[in-house]
Amino acid sequence: MTTTPVAFAGSPMDRADHIRADPAALAGLLNWRARVLHLEGLMPVIGDMGELVWGTLADTAEDAELVFLGLLDEKACFAAVPQEGATGPAYANPRIWQAMQMLSPADLAIYGGARSLVDWHARHRFCARCGAGTRLTKGGWQRDCGTCHAQHFPRTDPVTIMLVEHSGRLLLGRQPRFPPRAFSALAGFVEPGETIEEAVAREVFEEAGVRVRDVEYIATQPWPFPSQLMIGCYCTAETDALTIDETELEEARWFTREDVARAMAEGRDGSGPFAPPPSSAIAHTLLSWWLDKA
C-alpha cells in the first residue's frame, strides 16, 4: 500500500470522548484558552501561510451552537454550527478544491471532521421522529429531542469505490459532471442489508454490467461532502463485456497498465490517455496501489 497520506485522514485532534459526556468538564473548557475554528459557512478560513485560522470565544456569537472537536496541543477546540448546511454538491465549488490543495494533511483532516459535524447539525435541527426542535448535547456528538426524547447521532454513509481488473486492464468510468477526459474508479453507496463485498458486486454490475469476484479491501478515506466513508476495494471481473447504465455513467472503458501509468505520470493537465483523479481522492490512491503491486 502506498505510504502517501490519504486526504482528510490522520487528524492530530484528541477527540476526548470522556469529556463529551461530562457537562461540567465541557463547561470548564469554555474559557479564554478555548480555540474556535474560523469558518465562512462551511468553508475554511485559510491564513497567509496556508493554515487553518482559529479564533476565540470572543469572536463567536453568544447564541452560537458550539461543537467540541477535541483537544489539540492541550487546548479545547470548537466549531460553530452555521445557519445553513450544504445546499449543493461540494465538488462543484472551486474553493473546496483550492482549500484541499492549500491545507496541510493535518489541517485538512481537522477541517474535514469539523465540516462533517457542523453540517450535520445545521441540517438536523428538527427531530426526524416528531418534528420538534432538537438541542445539541454531548459536546455536539448528539442531538436530543425534548418532546419525544429521541436521540440523534451524526451519521457517516459508507460508499464502496473499486478497481475492477480483467486480464491486466482496469475498468474506469466517467460521470457527466466530470471534467473533460477525466476517468475514475466506479463507486456507489452501500445499501441496507449489504456487506461491502455485496455492494461492490452490485454496483459494478448495475453501472457496467460486469460480474466480479474476489473482492479485496484496500483502504478507506473520510470524505466530508457531506459525510461519507469511502471504502476502497479491488476485484476481478469475470468478463470484459460492458453494458453501461447511462443514467450513472457517460462512458466506461478498459485501460491497460501502460495507459494508467502514463495518465498518472502526466497528471490531470497532461496529454495521457485520460485525466486521473485528483491526488486528494482515494481513487488516486487506489490507482497508485495498483501500479505499485505489479
Low-confidence spans: none
Order of helices and strands: HHEEEEEEHHEEEEEEHEEEHH
| Helical amount | 10-25%
> So, CATH architecture of the largest domain?
Alpha-Beta Complex
Tell me the name of the CATH homologous superfamily of the largest domain. Answer: Nucleoside Triphosphate Pyrophosphohydrolase
User: Would you state the CATH class of the largest domain?
Assistant: Alpha Beta
Spatial extent as radius of gyration: 21 Å
Q: Please indicate the count of domains.
A: 2
Q: Count of helical segments?
A: 7
Q: What is the total tally of β strands?
A: 15
Mean pLDDT figure: 94
How big a fraction of the residues is strand? 25-35%
**Spatial gap, N to C terminus:** 12 Å
Shape: globular
Largest sheet: 6 strands, mixed
SS-based class: alpha+beta
**And the CATH topology of the largest domain?**
Nucleoside Triphosphate Pyrophosphohydrolase
Q: How would you characterize the overall build of this protein?
A:
There is one protein chain. This protein is of the alpha+beta class. The protein has two domains: 17-123, no CATH class; 157-292, Nucleoside Triphosphate Pyrophosphohydrolase (Alpha-Beta Complex), CATH 3.90.79. It is built from seven helices and 15 strands. The chain has helices spanning 17-20, 23-29, 94-102, 105-123, 196-208, 257-266, 282-292, and strands at 35-37, 39-40, 43-44, 54-55, 66-72, 75-80, 134-137, 142-145, 151-152, 157-166, 169-174, 186-189, 212-223, 228-237, 251-256. The strands form four sheets. Strands 10, 11, 12, 13, 14 and 15 form a six-stranded mixed sheet that branches. Strands 4-1-6-5 form a four-stranded mixed sheet, covered by helices on one side. The chain has a three-stranded antiparallel sheet with strand order 7-8-9, with no helix packed on it. β5 (66-72) and β6 form a beta hairpin. The radius of gyration is 21 Å and the shape is globular. The N and C termini lie close together (12 Å). The mean pLDDT is 94.
